[in-house]
Description:
Elements: H1 2-14, H2 23-93, E1 114-120, E2 125-128, H3 133-136, H4 145-152, E3 159-160, E4 164-165, E5 172-181, E6 187-196, H5 206-209, E7 214-219, E8 224-229, E9 232-234, H6 240-243, E10 252-256, E11 267-273, E12 279-286, H7 287-290, H8 292-345, E13 352-358, E14 364-372, H9 374-379
Helix pairs in contact: 2-8
Amino acid sequence: MKKLAFIATRCWTYFEFLRGNYRLVIFWPLAGLLVASAAWGFLLQRLDVERNVADRTALRVVAENASVQARRIGRNLAMIDQMLAVVKMQWQMLDGDVKLNRLKTLEPFPGSHFDLVILDKDGVVNMTTSGRAGIEQRYNFSQRPFFTAQKNAMSDSFVVGLPLLSASSGKVSLNYSRRLVASDGTFAGVVAINIDADSLITDYDEAVLGRRGLLEVIGDDNISRSARLANKNVEHAVTPDQVGNLALDSPGEKFLEGNFFADARNRYLAWSPVDGYPLSVLVGMDQQDYLGIYFERRNASINTAINATVALAVFVLIAIMLSIGLVRKNHQLQNAHTTYRIATEGGDDGFFILALRAGKARQVADFRVIDCNERGAEIFYASRQ
Length: 385
């Protein structure tokens, strides 16, 4: 304890000269703090503005893409609906004598394989364009969701079935159907068209959505019909328990955390219902992919700011040390001047400080009195001023 007190006393004695002269010393850290605070505040504000602009731009891009995808799928579904309407009309007018193969030249989804099928009221295949007609006629579709939905419907409606994996082709297909009605108004069967489920998401644009984007089509029952996540097709992209938290009956967009998605990555998500049909299109863009350039620029800016702050701190430290040295020298000069005054003013002798003027041959030619004490002034009957 005594040792600490001794050290404190020595330090106080050493830095005693700062008392009354501290303003110049504390100016530098205060000025450095003010400059650093202003610079960091400006930098962080600018980065926040850039981030907000990037977020808004990302949401606008996915919203526009979702709207485009919804219109595209709507046009394709309208063609499917027209095909079903034609088959239904021919079935009613020709008493079931329909030539399905004549419609095989159409392509409701370009490049996608499809088959038409007519089921009777018991769910048995009546006719089909499939090359496996003999095999399919052995199956009964009465328990399939699309068939029961049409059978129980109170009016004619366009039903999009659930994804079904084909045992023969190994591909997932979707069933689009309409209700057949007999002349007496009773349920007579179903006309349906089976198309590869991937046809809904073939227009995934990696140039816009990135490598880890998202494109999914979900029914009004909140069940996924087709989905692509990153570079592969998946059963669902948005986790099923989170779909109900999205208002898919109207267009919208928002930033969502990873718990909404099957791969647990944060995304900008937008959705748009397909006008006139029980489907909604969801489009997502990976946050890390989209903001990659922004994050790189942000990190570079922050690293530059850190280096500048360190340089400023070094400058302030040097300035403080130089200021302390200057204050110390001024203090010593004032002490010397005070000591001189005490020594000269207290005696009976005259003291003079002279400035010599050299003449030829470097000899003293003249002098000038710079300062003197009171006694020296009295000797010459003059005042010190």
